[in-house]
Amino acid sequence: MGLIIALIFAGVFAVVALVLFAGSSGAAQKAKQVQATLDSALATESQAAREQIVNLRKNEQFSAIPWINSRLGKFEVGPKLQALIHQANLQWSAGSLLAMCGACFAIPAFVVHWKTASILFAALAGLIFGFMPIFFVLFKRSKRFGAFEKELPQACDLMVSALRAGQSLIAAMGMVSRECTDPLSGEFRTCFEEQNFGLELKTAVDNLLHRVPLQDLRIVCTAILIQKESGGNLAEVLDKTAHVIRERFRLKREVSTRTAQGRMTGWVLTLLPIVLGFALYCVNPDMMSLLWKRDIGIKLLYAASAMIVVGGLIIRKIVNMDV
């Protein structure tokens, strides 16, 4: 019976995967044709000039499958997931991310239910593994934002030098887009190109803040917009802003250093029971299987899981400090 269920699940999963692959390949081929047409129309001959072209087209397609795309467009989850994927700089779509979450949920849940015959443990394992793709997107997003925040003071210094040399603010942003590294250069290049295509400065800056919602960048953009409305020495304001950002970054690193032991303690106390239970199951499966074969063992597992989650959340609340 278990083998039949496994074969049915594998068949359904293969059909869904083939449908998704067919839809994505067709969309990719169409995108390549459109890109080739644009390259031909722009007549870009060198690779360096081709790399400077910024794609400002708004891609609102959440999935390569039309009915999934229409369903995701009707809910708020589609645009939010697409914004997270864009901020993580991944070439995914909201539909593909949800498909990966579904696959990561179904396979572990089926395996756990097959081994333990417990719906609750199967659902718990499915939820843990089902959120792994979203956790990966959030990790890539956090890493990209960290790199952006680290390079932001240098970008401010570069803009200050350009302004003191007599260049305009837009020219200074263009210099930042050329001289700095990714991801800061790409975001500032998009903002610079939006200015060139006719958007107002406030709209372009708001779009930049929407793509990179960081507090330090908000300080810089606020200083730019205030100077645009009321006037003043923007070079001096940006110079002081870069100093404030460096001090905040130094304080954040100091707090992170002093709370490193607490974070490590939280990870050890959270993962140690799980790893130890898996190791004991590998050594003696009959002894460990008593935990989910008897009522008292199931109750102990519920209590242990609840205490692990609560303890991890308490330690996370203690070591996380806003700077």
Give a quick summary of the entry:
With 323 residues, this protein is mostly helical. The chain contains 16 helices and no strands. It has 3 domains: 129 residues, no CATH class; 114 residues, Receptor-associated Protein (Up-down Bundle), CATH 1.20.81; 61 residues.
Which key features would you list for this structure?
Receptor-associated Protein; mainly alpha; 3 domains; 83% helix; single chain; 323 residues
pLDDT < 50 runs, ≥5 residues:
3-12, 14-28, 41-54
Indicate the percent of residues in helices.
over 70%
Largest sheet: none
What's the shape? elongated
- Tally of strands: 0
Radius of gyration: 26 Å
Proportion of residues in β-strands:
under 5%
By DSSP (H or I, 4+ residues per run), the number of helices equals: 16
| Domain module tally | 3
Alpha-carbon distance between the two ends = 57 Å
